[in-house]
């Protein structure tokens, strides 16, 4: 008998859709010859004990759900054997799915059908050390405007907004306001063997091209090249960057010449002690970080 690959399906549902989604998707997965086990990721913690038995870990949710799953993989040490993940984009921004060229509007049956003939995309990730702590990021980590945006959006009730497009637009509108008043801090950056120093409104170390509300900061970033892209916005670029974001919000054509430093390792010192790591904010004791790339940690099916 041919070996049937084991799929573990980890679902972070929107209200009211979990039963319909579970039956339809499990049927689609099993139709393609996989064995499938389903878990509601927020309600059933048993998935953490089963994840190491899966050939393919399927994440049905947004970027935050993907991060939660990858965190568990690392804590269990499974990523040493290059865990294979497949994404069914169901979040608001879906920056990771966008990077992997997965269309949110494609039916999940078509996504599942594509797995057999799909390509494995190697995926690097960033590691970050501060105050004796170690963490990782899939999208980006940095200072300035984006920690402020995360803190602002965490205080807003988004349940009254009908669509994810409405939520993204609101985030961009708040980002525009933050850019107007953001404080520029002094940063000293050691990027591999070169040193830079200046004052910036934004400093982001990017692993993928886009972050937050689908804002592309590092268009040339590659997920498997063994490098990270550090992007900066200086005080003199404030007005131009604000206009760029405003045009994106209005759906108008726009471009911005982002200043980028590409390296494998960054040591950063700053007077700014607040950082973000993907979608969470963290306070550091002295504003100092060490960030490195780890090559080909994950495989994504696409």
UniProtKB/TrEMBL annotation:
Signal peptide (residue range): none
The keyword Nucleotide-binding appears for this protein: yes
Domain of life where this protein originates: Bacteria
Organism: Sphingobacterium haloxyli
GO molecular function: ATP binding; kinase activity
Keyword ATP-binding in record: yes
InterPro entries according to UniProt: ATP-NAD_kinase_N (IPR017438), Diacylglycerol_kinase_cat_dom (IPR001206), Lipid_Phosphate_FormReg (IPR050187), NAD/diacylglycerol_kinase_sf (IPR016064), YegS/DAGK_C (IPR045540)
SMART domains: DAGKc
DAGKc domain location: 1-132
Listed name of the protein: Diacylglycerol kinase
Keywords on record: ATP-binding, Kinase, Nucleotide-binding, Transferase
């Amino acid at each position: 008998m041919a070996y049937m690959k084991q799929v573990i399906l980890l679902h972070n549902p929107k209200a009211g859709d979990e039963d319909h989604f579970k039956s339809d998707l499990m049927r689609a997965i099993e139709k393609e010859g996989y064995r499938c086990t389903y878990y509601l990721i927020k309600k059933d913690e048993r998935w953490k004990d089963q994840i190491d038995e899966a050939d393919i870990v399927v994440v049905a949710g947004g970027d935050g759900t993907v991060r939660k799953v990858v965190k568990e993989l690392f804590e269990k040490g499974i990523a040493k054997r290059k865990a294979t993940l497949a994404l069914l984009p169901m979040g608001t921004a879906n920056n990771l799915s966008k990077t992997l060229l997965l269309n949110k509007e494609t039916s999940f049956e078509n996504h599942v059908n594509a797995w057999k003939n799909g390509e494995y995309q190697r995926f690097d990730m960033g590691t970050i050390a501060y105050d004796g702590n170690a963490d990782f990021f899939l999208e980006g980590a940095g200072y300035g405007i984006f920690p402020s945006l995360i803190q602002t959006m965490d205080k807003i009730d988004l349940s009254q907004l009908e669509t994810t497009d409405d939520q993204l637009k609101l985030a961009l509108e708040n980002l525009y306001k933050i850019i107007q008043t953001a404080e520029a801090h002094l940063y000293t950056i050691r990027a591999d063997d070169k040193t830079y120093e200046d004052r910036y409104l934004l400093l982001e170390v990017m692993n993928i091209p886009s972050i937050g509300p689908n804002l592309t900061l590092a268009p040339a970033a590659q997920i498997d090249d063994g490098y990270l892209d550090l992007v900066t916005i200086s005080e003199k670029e404030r007005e131009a960057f604000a206009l760029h974001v405003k045009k994106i919000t209005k759906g108008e054509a726009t471009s911005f010449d982002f200043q980028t430093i590409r390296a494998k390792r960054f040591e950063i010192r700053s007077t700014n002690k607040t950082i973000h790591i993907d979608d969470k904010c963290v306070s550091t004791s002295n504003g100092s970080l060490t960030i490195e790339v780890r090559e080909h940690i994950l495989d994504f099916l696409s």
